[in-house]
């Protein structure tokens, strides 16, 4: 649920040991993904199947919906097979659109300075992660990079958080998760993640949209600015 009213974020840093951050829309500008799946891919799909771009877009959107909230949605090898297109190759053709959100490197350095465990936790396929981090030089900040593929479930699924806790041995109550997807935040909340932050501007090309339930930030500098450390 979205709102025009912003719930401000206040992180009790002394009570946080572990910081978990989503990638697409949270650390990276989601414009790349929106453009790829909604514009670039339908154009190529229309050529392969000799249909209009509009028809291709309608067909692909329906396929996307069927795979939503599952590992299949982010599995680019699945989509390469399904659509008879080389999805990694197509992504690399427009990799100049991959961009880090403002103030992300400063926030990651801030978390390191505080001595927090820092994990990138993404639904993205490992090959997608590699393509993104080849352009976005932020991988070295993290203690570990976790793809949902490794865990065996998408972040929207409760089993993901049980498995992730087994894998990383973190205390949910002393953990922070920042994500642009409210369904992920809800699932993490049910698992007991203590501090949840909603990213209100996942794409630089789309309007800010605040959560009606979770504290929202427009930019990570808000979490640095509100700290006294």
TrEMBL record:
The keyword Iron does not apply. CDD domains: HAD_like. Pfam families: Hydrolase. GO terms for cellular component: cytosol. GO terms for biological process: DNA repair. InterPro entries: HAD-like_hydrolase_sf, HAD-like_sf, HAD-SF_hydro_IA, HAD_sf. GO terms for molecular function: phosphoglycolate phosphatase activity. It comes from the Bacteria. Keywords: Hydrolase. This is Hydrolase of the HAD superfamily. It comes from Candidatus Electronema aureum.
């Amino acid at each position: 649920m979205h709102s025009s009213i912003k719930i401000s974020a206040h992180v009790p840093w002394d009570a946080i040991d572990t910081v978990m951050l989503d990638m697409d829309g949270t650390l990276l500008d989601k414009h790349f993904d929106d453009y790829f799946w909604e514009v670039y891919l339908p154009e190529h799909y229309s050529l392969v199947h000799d249909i209009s771009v509009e028809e291709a877009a309608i067909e692909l959107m329906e396929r996307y919906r069927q795979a939503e909230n599952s590992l299949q949605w982010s599995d680019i090898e699945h989509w390469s097979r399904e659509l008879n297109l080389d999805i990694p190759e197509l992504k690399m053709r427009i990799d100049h659109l991959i961009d880090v959100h403002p103030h992300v490197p400063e926030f990651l350095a801030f978390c390191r300075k505080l001595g927090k465990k820092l994990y990138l936790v993404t639904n993205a396929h490992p090959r997608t992660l590699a393509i993104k981090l080849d352009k976005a030089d932020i991988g070295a900040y993290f203690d570990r990079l976790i793809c949902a593929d490794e865990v065996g479930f998408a972040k929207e699924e409760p089993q993901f958080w049980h498995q992730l806790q087994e894998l990383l041995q973190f205390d949910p109550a002393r953990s922070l998760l920042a994500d642009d997807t409210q369904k992920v935040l809800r699932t993490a909340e049910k698992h007991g993640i203590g501090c949840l932050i909603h990213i209100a501007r996942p794409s630089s090309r789309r309007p800010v949209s605040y959560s009606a339930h979770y504290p929202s930030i427009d930019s990570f500098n808000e979490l640095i600015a509100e700290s006294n450390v």
